[in-house]
Here is the input.
Amino acid sequence: MEIGKIFVWTDQCCDYVPILSCVTNLVDLIQKISIDLFVDQSTVDQSRYYTHIQEKTYKRCFSLIFLFFLGNLIFAIYDFMHRNEDFAPPAVDNMTCRNPPITSEEMEEANKQAVICNSKNVCEFKPSPEDGNKNLNNYNINEDRVFQPYLFKIKLDLNQLIRVPSSFKKNHKFMLEAVKINDKSILYASNDLKNSKKFMLAAAEINYLTLFHASYRLLNDDDFMLKAVKIDYKTFSSASYDLKKCKAFVFNALDIDYRVLSYITQDLSKDQNYMLDVASMDYRALEYASDEFKNSEELMLKVIKKDYRAIAFVPYWMIHRSSFLFKAVEKDYRILEHPDIKKHRANWLFMEEAIKINYRSFKYISQSLKSNSYFIERALEINDRISSLNYLGLQVK
Here is the structure.
């Protein structure tokens, strides 16, 4: 018996022994983490023991460490009941295509398409020599039949992806189906797929978090990342640090969705001149501006001049200062429509001064002032151009 099989058999037996299982599973847990982080997958595939440790779930390890006796009993019963099932769906055994059996015609077609099905009807894509390392996106032999047993097992246990043929992990269609089942499947995709713009954009449409596993080349590619931002602005969070601090790139991303500003670098968000330019493009960018920026009257007035709706982001203490509001009215009288300025619209002296600055401010006087003939006369004295206004049914003569 191979030494690897002896280790696997020993580890399996220890899972049923109280106390001892705590020690062995603690060791298994350390080994599992080390294998996942530091051991190349090709090395794991060549070792029966490494494969066993990698396939062993964290749930099983933690349960056997902390659930004395009960954990041993539960997994003993579970393993006994599933000893011949291997997590397979009914009529699909050991990841095979046995239901229904592969016909001779399909076997012939499989050979033409470089799909190898052995005597046990286990199917695996094998590129022909002229294909080199090209992925198998173009093969069209009953892919659903070949993929389905593997995809079914992945639904039950993501770790089953470890046992999937390496050629499947290079297949665009198969890996996208796996990502639809569980977005963490992207961890098992080949490096070629993680470097494929088409595949990674398709994966981002399923879940933006998959983009964190794209190659650095893609995450540092401004054209690619802008396409990703069009899919979901949250993909901006996976962009390289160099892109996040690139002013030109952020401007282009801002044209797509202003919310990307929630992911820019701290240095960039503290750059007042830059944030002024950004807020001038889209006033909603003020949501992500620093308090220091928003507490500056000068900066806020500059943004209001570009878009009066920026008044919505003015701090509470500032919006209740008449001196600031008069300066804002000078930039754009429409700031008076903001709900927080409602009480000012009923203030005779405030509105009188606002009309002096811009006669169109008259549009926003309160109902009580509209019905006050003395105020109307005073307003006409200040600026007779308000006689041309017809607001909410009030005709000023």
